[in-house]
Amino acid sequence: MEKGNLHRWVEQLDTGMKYKRGLGIESTAHTFGVSVVDERGTILSNVKEVYKPPPGKGIHPREASRHHAEKAPKLIGDALKAASLTIDDMDFIAYSAGPGLGPCLRVGATLARALSVYYHKPIIPVHHGVGHIELGCLLTGSSDPVVLLLSGGHTMILVSGIRSWVVFGETLDLTLGQLIDQFGRAIGYSSPAGPSIERLARDGKKYVTLPYVVKGNDLSFSGMLTSIKKELSRPYADLAFSLQETAFAMVAEVSERALALTGKRELLVVGGVAANARLSEMLNHVADRQGAAIKPIPIAFAGDCGAQIAWPGVLYNKAGISARAEDAFVNQSWRIDRVSVPWRS
Amino acid sequence: MEKLIKRGAEADILLGWWGPLRAVYKVRRAKPYMVTELDLKLRKARTIREASVMPHARKAGANTPYIFYVGIRTFTIVMQYIEGPTMKEVLDDKPVLAAVLGRTLSRLHSAGIIHGDPNTANFILSDANRLWYTVDFGLSFFSSELEDIAVDIHIVKEMLAAQHKRVFQEAFNHFLTGYSETAGQHGLTQILKKLNEIERRGRYGRQFVD
């Protein structure tokens, strides 16, 4: 018996109970991730493989799904092994049901359905964005934050509503991730281009004026993309710098508005773009000015991962919610404010 | 001396005097996290915008505070102090007040003014004369485009859903009723059609409009 297993066995003996736990499968876009999380919120394992498109290209959904299908069996095995558990120990199978790229989502969903039916486990569809938020709350100990959700497909500010997350403000067109990726692609980087653009921006000196569009609590980035594509004769470093400064300032302003208007005292930043150091610096200022605490999520969990699916799985499982395997579909354009989140009031 | 009464996202609001009159000093201070060029450009543009739109808004039938002084170089506007509760504080108990918001906004829109930030915190019920005042025109602009009008309505809807979640549906209905009094049923229908289009746009467009 491995040490981890023995330790857990002794622990269970101590408390006289078995903690419920489940498997989470994330496959919305470039990441295929698998994780086992128990009901106390202990992440027992979290493994992933990331599909990397060729330089200057975006994610090709078919190629990404092929990548996921190839890696999936081994990753599921790895996740269980790392947790020193078997599939029989799982109390549920959770998967990312959307939003995302159809072919990628279907890899995760198909696997989840197969495991669920074959091993008689409840199946739980999880919204990718809700996953980011709930995992963020778990890891940072936030209780009632203003959430800034900056994943590839989302640029949103949210607050908790009645059994749901409510959009406080969002982009009206492109997301911040799309803006960065599409600019990155135009100058020869592959998606996700965030880290490359961030490095490039550090050498930028001259600020190029770009459209700054804030409408109430909403944002618009499409004008910025159009105008930066017309400036490609300038040094790329200056452009990357100006893009970050303008786009992040817009995000910072609406975050500050959300804090000022709601009076909430926590700002939780989740999603892949949360890893950007310049953005964090700006948001730190914002939180400071509004007397709020910024809750940075550990870098390892900022991007897509299985734990963001497994943890909401735990919460749904506790609430007694699961789907029938024949209804466990994917929804490529599932809106976050239409997701039932029974543990939020 | 002026006293800080509110720190918004965009400006500090100070309470002081202008001669014998109570006055609000709205000061757009430098944001240390922004690149200087952008910061200066935004503060200047918004100060000028706010000061120039407010008198037009009053002519259009929305009460706005009187402006006493505008400092372009200090990014300061000194204006009449309106004392009283904001709609944000009272709407949850009295959702019918959203009709006032609707009426005011449609008056502005029909005069070609987009408020840009129609938040319930920007409507104040004056203790002195029991009239509703509209403030904070920093994001406002002149336009009669259906698109701009519909975005203004979208902001109202989103704001009511997020900040007045318990009375959202009722308040939004009152808002639409109030709005149609000036805009007419036909005008409202056109706008709602555009609103639907806007909400379907973007990454994960709303599938239904409630």
Summed up, what is this model?
The complex is a heterodimer of chains A (345) and B (210). Chain A is α/β, with parallel strands linked by helices and 345 residues long. Chain A contains eleven helices and twelve strands.
Comma- or semicolon-separated keywords:
heterodimer; A: 345 residues; alpha/beta; Nucleotidyltransferase, domain 5; 2 domains; 5-stranded mixed beta sheet; 12 strands; globular; B: 210 residues; alpha+beta; Phosphorylase Kinase, domain 1; Transferase(Phosphotransferase), domain 1; 5-stranded antiparallel beta sheet; two-stranded antiparallel sheet; 5 helices
Topology:
The complex is a heterodimer of chains A (345) and B (210).
Chain A: H1 3-15, E1 21-26, E2 31-38, E3 43-50, H2 61-82, E4 93-98, H3 102-119, E5 123-127, H4 128-140, E6 146-149, E7 156-160, E8 165-170, H5 176-186, H6 194-201, E9 214-215, E10 218-219, H7 222-229, H8 236-262, E11 266-270, H9 277-289, E12 293-296, H10 299-302, H11 307-318
Parallel strand pairs in A: 1-4, 4-5, 6-11, 11-12
Antiparallel strand pairs in A: 1-2, 2-3, 6-7, 7-8, 9-10
Chain B: E1 3-7, E2 12-18, E3 21-27, H1 36-60, E4 67-71, E5 76-80, H2 87-90, H3 98-110, E6 113-114, E7 123-125, E8 132-134, E9 141-142, H4 146-163, H5 168-200
In sequence order, what are the helices and strands of chain B, one letter per element?
A: EEEHEEHHEEEEHH
Q: Helical amount among residues of chain A, as a percent range?
A: 40-55%
Secondary structure class of chain A reads: alpha/beta
* Count of domain modules of chain B: 2
Largest sheet of chain B: 5 strands, antiparallel
**How would you describe the shape of chain B?**
globular
Please bin the fraction of helical residues of chain B: 40-55%
Give me the CATH superfamily of the largest domain in chain A.
Answer: ATPase, nucleotide binding domain
Number of domains of chain A: 2
Number of strands of chain A: 12
Rough shape of chain A?
Answer: globular
From the N-terminal CA to the C-terminal CA of chain A, the straight-line distance is 43 Å
Strands across the major sheet of chain B, in which order? 1-2-3-5-4
- Major protein interface: A-B, 49 and 39 residues
Mean pLDDT of chain A: 92
**CATH homologous superfamily caption of the largest domain in chain B:** Transferase(Phosphotransferase) domain 1
What is the annotated CATH architecture of the largest domain in chain A?
Answer: 2-Layer Sandwich
**Series of H and E elements of chain A:** HEEEHEHEHEEEHHEEHHEHEHH
